Amino acid sequence: MDTVSTGDIEKLLRVNELYINFYTYEGVVKAIDGVSFDIHPNETFALVGETGCGKSVTARAILRLIPTPPGKIEGGEILFNGVDLLKIPEKEMLEYRGKKISMIFQEPMTSLNPVFTVGDQLVETIALNQKVSKEEAYNIALKMLERVRIPDAENAMTKYPHEFSGGQRQRIVIAMALSCNPSLLIADEPTTALDVTVQAQIINLMNELQKNMGTSILLITHDLGVVAEMSDRVAVMYAGNIVELGTTSVIFEKRYHPYTQGLFNAIPVFGKGKQTRLEEIPGSVPNLLYPPPGCRFHPRCPHVMDICRKEKPELIELEPGHYVRCHLYR
Amino acid sequence: MERVTDFKEKHDAKIKEIKYSLFLVRNSPLTILGALIILILILVAVFAPYIAPYDPEKTNILARLKPPSKDHPFGTDDLGRDIFSRVIWGSRISLQIGFTVVFFATAIGTVLGLIAGYFRGWIDEILMRITDMFFAIPSLILAMAISAALQTRSIYTTMLAVTFVWWPAYVRIVRSSVLSLVESQFVEAARSLGASNRRIMFKHILPNSLAPLLVQMTLDLGAVILVAAGLSFIGFGAGPNTPEWGRMVAEGRNYMTTAWWTITFPGLAIFITVLGFNLLGDGLRDILDPRLRR
Fold first, then answer.
1. What ipTM was estimated for this complex?
2. B208: nearest CB among A104, A105, A114
């Protein structure tokens, strides 16, 4: 996919200088520290990073699902088709959730209400969001279940969530999320809780649906394999910052940022020989109550310089459409 | 015929579910006993005019304090009223009080519990401190005080007084299950799909907290009847001629040593009713317990 940096391509979603803090008993956690990215129509954009780096918080902020308190969006804009979602009243937000932006979650086991049949839940959601009659909603639900390849969809409608396997449940959740034809689907680690073969099925399904329905996907994951399979562009996050952003192919090939390099070195590679050990990134994720000054990665960075300890690096455009936040490339 | 198979296919899952519940019930004789007692009680209450041989309020001084006999199976009281008829009519009053109080207490408690658990913050704090106040005072004493303050005496003031002290328990039950359900992912998923707060509260959270609520309601039916009888016993209940079990025990207690039947039969009626509801409630708890289900 052609990714010219900014400007010329119309943007579906633009997150601009987002700051989110969590006010806890121990102090203020600066979870998101100036995150910016764009999502274009029809693309899959991945946010990658370790647990606790702020991927999910960013995703939830888009739908304004951050629990407040303790969370608080301190600044920035989230422009969806030009509308700043952070400025509209909660009531208008309901018009976006599920209709224009949908979300699927990590745990398919618990994303469905256990006391209603799958059919009831699908029909209810569709009737609510599309203002159609129950019969029409039923037909749409049936079609969606067939689309996500649930066998014997009509029968599946009368079953309860616990009667399905994890993979099937995730398919149902995807069907529900896509039932109203949203232009953006936020997928928060959609395959993490599934075993590998089922993962592949779900990834294929999402790729296929994305192509057919023209939905953009914001993919949250820590799995670089999933990124390679699905996404057009990637942003690598570390401790509330985006440290590298670019097309998937360039990132997989070049890896400018030391953290990205570390992340990739931690993937096992076949045929590398028996003796090589997996490399790890030394140290651990910083406590965001007291984020390190300057570059947040500097305590773990093999190329650390004096300036890294003092000054937070800016995102630099190294190649067209490829950004890195590191003093090495100044 | 086609319709029948159609219906069967369409509701296959639900039918299976009900069948399984019935299977669990069958394996618990005490639950069946409880259900049976309640069923008989309801039938007695509904058909009271046809079952009772005498007018429960008609006095007959000539036949006062007669021991149980063929004419008066439970004997007669100090004013010559037929105790059997009075016990039968009394079932109406007890059930009426039980159901009304539990219904209103549940309605109030559920709404407030949902609000407290869902919104948290200051509203939760205020509601919980109010319920704490209620729990700080023994409920029977509080109900007495309210009855006393209400001046008039009837089964309706009893209902009002007992409802007033009963709803806080439901706020607690509902709130505690809401607290855990709010965190669950399907609630977040519902929100991400555009469901409003009210919709999430009543369509997603409430149905998931019905099981403990149902158990508590059943157990409370018995408890409410007991408290209402207690209120009547100490004189805060229904008016003089009303065939209310608690009141009958109170009226009979002066003759306890010479005419044991005056207090025994209404007392037994209270005992069996409360036992029935408790057995049914305990059984329901076991049946609705998800750990017991498959």
1. 0.77
2. A114
Q: A4 falls in which pLDDT band (50, 70, 90)? A: very low
**A105–B188 CB contact, under 8 Å:** yes
Tell me phi and psi for residue A129, to 5 degrees: -85, -30
Name the A residues in 268-297 with CB < 8 Å from any B CB: none
Q: Is A163 close to B199, i.e. CB distance below 8 A?
A: no
Going along chain B from its start, the domains and CATH numbers come out as: 25-288 (1.10.3720.10)
**Is residue A139 located within the same domain as residue A122?**
yes
Q: For A79-108, what is each residue's pLDDT tens digit?
A: 888 888 888 888 888 888 888 898 888 877
The residue segments making up the domain with residue A125 are: 110-181
Nearest to A65 among B192, B207, B210 (CB): B192
- Choose one of A147, A181, A215: the last residue of a domain: A181
- Predicted TM-score of the model (pTM): 0.78
Are residues A199 and A284 both part of a single domain?
yes
Summarised one tens digit per residue, pLDDT across range A37-50 is 889 888 899 999 88
Contacts of A241 (CB under 8 A, 6+ apart): A33, A34, A35, A296, A325
Q: What are phi and psi of A149, to 5 degrees?
A: 60, 50
Q: How far apart are the C-alpha atoms of A299 and A281, rounded to whole Å?
A: 11
Domain count, chain A: 2
Span A294-300, mean pLDDT?
A: 86
